[in-house]
Amino acid sequence: MSRPAFDILGIGNAIVDVVAEAPEAFLSKHDMHKGAMALIDAERAEQLSAAMPHGQQSSGGSVANTCAVAASLGARAAFLGKVASDALGAAFRDDIRRVGVHFPTPPLQGGAATARCLILVTPDGQRTMNTYLGACIAFGERDVDTALIGDAAVLYLEGYLFDPPPAQAAFRQAAATARAAGRQVAVSLSDAFCVNRHRDAFRELVRDSTDILLANEAEICSLYEENAFEAAAAAAHRDVGLAVLTRSEAGSVIYAGDERLEIPAEPARVVDTTGAGDAYAAGFLTGLTAGRPLAECGRLGSIAAAEVISQFGARPRTDIAARVRAAGL
After folding, report:
1. CA 49 to chain CA mean position, Å
2. How many whole angstroms separate alpha carbon 219 and alpha carbon 259?
3. Edge-to-edge strands of the sheet including 56-60?
């Protein structure tokens, strides 16, 4: 089989992220629960946009962030996701292409506005997210680029996009296309509440169509309805060939065949936890598609996550590849 044109192809929510510092009093005034993610409608999105402090704006969404960080690490990355034909959609398209990610999905015409995530970061580094999904949930089977999927080593699917039925159908089609082409399918569970809503469908996707599962402790425990991490991890190990499970400051655990690898977290001064899991996935998948040993893949993930949480926003503003080289990787 010829070498694919891309290392990673992500499919997920195409969202414009706006990240701003805010005191806890702002959260209270606007009835937000610190550290949570709330889905909001277009009217509340406009109200909060007008009220929140000035912030940094960039193309975002969980898997889009992973693709962007992977590109900064030298991976050849592509992304499929839906934006509207509006100013924010143009901003998303221009920004993600600027960081080196191939983005060919045509915009939605005449429907909802481009999605946005309004992220408030309190002084303790916790992020509170308010997400208007808008056009991104219009992604469906017609947006699945089968030729591009066949030309990517790993297809990476975002759990956040699993809510609407058209996206679930698109995921199944994309996964089947990837496997028919001899490519690997990776899935991010993304959010424990999303898993709670679609547990049976997620289990089916993981068991029947997934080669690589990425999840944090809360998400994997939700998927398998286990209170203990080790029990949930064992269930994941039975269902997929490669399970990559993150545990915040406790690092991560990788299960592959008879191997169980524990990867320590990299030291970091926590400024903003936005995008930590996305960055970890970027480092891990970049290493994996480059043929590195699993322990090195996990370390790359930890370094990428540490770099991202030491600054505001989900994208590294420093030379993350230089930090990786300095670590001897």
Report:
1. 23
2. 22
3. 37-39, 127-132, 115-121, 15-21, 56-60
| Contact present, 243 and 213 (Cβ < 8 Å) | yes
Domains of the chain as residue ranges with CATH: 6-14+62-104+139-326 (3.40.1190.20)
Q: pLDDT tens digit string along 3-15? A: 899 999 999 999 9
Q: Is the pLDDT of residue 291 over 70?
A: yes
Question: What are the structure tokens assigned to 237, written together?
Answer: 């190990």
Can you name the residues that pair with 58 across neighbouring β-strands? Answer: 17
What is the CB neighbour count within 10 angstroms for residue 37? Answer: 17
Q: How far is CA 241 from CA 184, 234, 235, 255, 259, in A?
A: 11, 12, 12, 8, 11
Cross-strand bridge partners of residue 233: none
Q: Considering the entire predicted model, what is its pTM?
A: 0.90
On whether the CB atoms of residues 245 and 236 are closer than 8 A, the answer is: yes
Q: How many residues does the chain have?
A: 329
